[in-house]
Amino acid sequence: MKNNRKQKLMDLGADALAEALLGLAAHSDEADDLIEQLIATPRENVQRFKKKLSSLKRSRRFIDWRGSAEFARELEMLLQDLKSGVDDPITGIELVAAFYEADNTIFEMCDDSSGNIGDVFRYDAKELFADYASRCKDKEKIADIILKVNQKDNYGIRDTLIDCAGNCLPEPDIRTMIAKLQKRADKEKDEYSKRHHLVLIESLARQIKDAKLFEKTRIASWGKLSTAALIDIARVYLESGDVETAHSWLKKIPEGETHQAYERDKLLEVIYQKLGDLEKLTELLYQKFRSYHSTDTLQALLNVIGHDKRDEVLANEVVNILKTDRLRESDAAFMIEVGKIDEAEKYLLKRADQLDGNHYGSLLSLAEAMAADNRHLVTSLIYRSLLISILERGYTKAYPHGIGYLKNLDKLATSVADWKEFNHHEAFKAQIIEAHGRKRSFWSKYEVQK
After folding, report:
1. Which domain of life is it from (predicted)?
2. Helix, coil or strand: residue 319
3. pLDDT for 369-397, tens place per residue?
4. Under a CB-based contact definition with an 8 Å cutoff, are residues 56 and 75 in contact?
5. Residue 60 CB: number of other CB atoms within 10 A?
6. CB atoms < 10 A from the CB of 3, how many?
7. If we measure between CA atoms, which residue out of 188, 169, 186, 187 comes closest to residue 177?
């Protein structure tokens, strides 16, 4: 479709397209800027970049959060001027660095609670810098510019250039950078400023897979190590190929610690695989499967213990799920997905009083699955919880959904042969009319659509 539109535009001819663009530019500053960029010479685009950047530094305007997306596009166009105008890598690197050094001005003139402006630095500017750096032969110059930009980082955005050093600099130049950053850190009396330099060393150490340096720097930066720090150190050792040491750092985490347990377990899984410790790996995967039942955690477990154990594992785990008192929609969804719909129905009926209509995302998929298999009673109970949630909140925008749920309940009622201990449909309907009968906008629309 996209190529078809492109061809049709090409068929219109240059004159028609030029007229259309000029017409658009008369009503859009962004379009007008794009035209200027397209027709400018490379030298003129460099001048446009410098002029715009200088204008930003002098600007007294303030952009609130509503205008942040448009301002981000303005900054993207500014970088596009640079990309279109500069082919020389050194010049390009210096000008992108100048863009980063304008971060104080840029962030002070806008509300970036949306993150749109920050993303221009993290992605667009970084990508442009990396492109120039990859083509630049003067690696020492690149390193010096990165260090110059990162002398200070008030908005936590300049370190994106440090993070890409490993892709554009050889290890000797990175080690020279590390030595210079260590000298800066040693001279700092302010703890925050010192830590800033040490964090940059950590990034560089990780990029060159120097886990020992990373460990030493993290300890120098924070002293007593948190669980997150232990995991970070273990990760870098693992990335550098030292599996045993990575494992030893994870063992330092106190037993029963839940903070960042997911990240810890991901590392442990890789470690046990590399060590060939099938017993520990199996234990870990069983634990992950039992803490969150899904086809993914099941598959990971079966890949280790054998797919011939699938029926046995499922039979045991379904028994365990049915023994629990607390409702977890994810457990019901899992049982449906693995073909245990009878058990899923039993599970939901026993815990129907725990159905929470506020969890409409997961409940809707459960209702649809049960309805598809003609499980009319449990489907009705799920729709009831969804309807009650909407009515209790008085959420008028969701009334059309609520009306749909009630109409589904009307239809399902004729197919339910045994209501068990639950209220019949008419009794349920009488209850919600009594409790929410004054919500006339709901009932009037329901009557019209009925």
Report:
1. Bacteria
2. helix
3. 999 999 999 999 999 999 999 999 998 99
4. no
5. 5
6. 7
7. 169
